[in-house]
């Protein structure tokens, strides 16, 4: 059975045989994939092997159990990238690589789903089927920093195994025929899972474990000697550890059920602690509206457009467009589909033209609006063709007005529905793309601002020269409207530059999983309908950042955690655990 422990695949097969819970996994031999014997497809957020799909996050393990270079791959919505786990080197046990998202293809690997354990791993050490010592340590998948004691050993805390975990320990000892055996348990919301079986392994630096282990092994050796050579009297063996006397062992190990319900008996079921976070930097928020094309492309590219043609218009003018998650249907286009679809943009603007001849027109206009004079000519030709045109207009003015009101209402409903759409940026790749786009926009705005200042300076010089010239002639200089407009425009540019510079600083700071303390949202605030497609023309940029622990806050948190542990769980054999 020792050879089984050298292969992770054989270990998992043995666990499956003994019905020990473990993570779902798939084994990929990349050499056979290269020869075309199997099909392996890789995408950013998942892999597919022979039609078996495994979504990220997942962990990639070499089939050789002695190779501890396990890599965790994360999906894009949680930051992407890869975390490399390795044997402890000084104070590090893992390293995060944001640029790595493709799996290794140089051998045979096991890909198993990543199970969340809330930042801890359980190390279990058995001595026979009936004894198991368990310790919790910080998971290397958390931040990769190894916490060590003053003696230089990794910080671990004794924990109590649940009934299901004790059964797992019993089965592993039986399955692998390993009396002294170490294995790892992941405690998840769905119960315990075994992720690794190490074989012969001892607890380090725990006096109580040494005493218990010595007693159990001594009893085993004495029992074996008595069985084989019959040279040691049975009564010399420790009765507590006598394997034959099972009833006595059970009686002294477990209390009687009747005793558990005595009036004086109390049992601690749980410990609940409410703590406030340490000192941290204030959370900050910024909003600004922009119409820059590079930002609008997030909504207006082919992948993000909401095509309205799919929402076919029925004869009664209704449409099936609905907002995702809201459950509210919006009649967006109404009776406008009778217009020529090859024409320009549907603006849905209301014509407020004066004149009686303009009131009878359909109120929905095109991008190139029809002049009122042309409308009058059209109406005059209509009058010549139909002598009863006035009665015709009176009869049809009411339904046309209703149609315009319906179109206006549909426009409002469509705007309400679409403005609920938003794009959130959290992962490093998304924030990096936004960072590059913002830099391009900032450079363009600064160039335009520079030209604008030069233009204002030139107009001011011309204006001053004109003032001097008019003062000599005794004339009064007129106000320069162009200059005031340019000054207002310069103020707008200064605000834009300040907004994009602030966004630059937000996107530039930090690395890795920065979506925890940074979030950018893009929300559409205005749009047009062009060729039956919604085109966003303005968006609201919302940036949120801050809230990180300060140095003092980190010290406060660490000191509080240490004091909490030392108070409730003071030592190896005292406190709540024992």
TrEMBL record:
List, alphabetically, the SUPFAM superfamilies matched. Glutathione synthetase ATP-binding domain-like, Phosphoglycerate mutase-like
**GO MF annotations for this entry?**
5-diphosphoinositol pentakisphosphate 1-kinase activity; ATP binding; inositol hexakisphosphate 1-kinase activity
The record ties this protein, via Pfam families, to:
His_Phos_2, RimK
Q: For this chain's UniProt record, which GO biological process terms are given?
A: inositol metabolic process; inositol phosphate biosynthetic process
- Which EC number(s) are documented for this chain? 2.7.4.24
Instruction: List where this protein forms a coiled coil.
Output: 442-503
The biased composition feature labelled Polar residues covers 384-402
Official protein name in the record: Inositol hexakisphosphate and diphosphoinositol-pentakisphosphate kinase
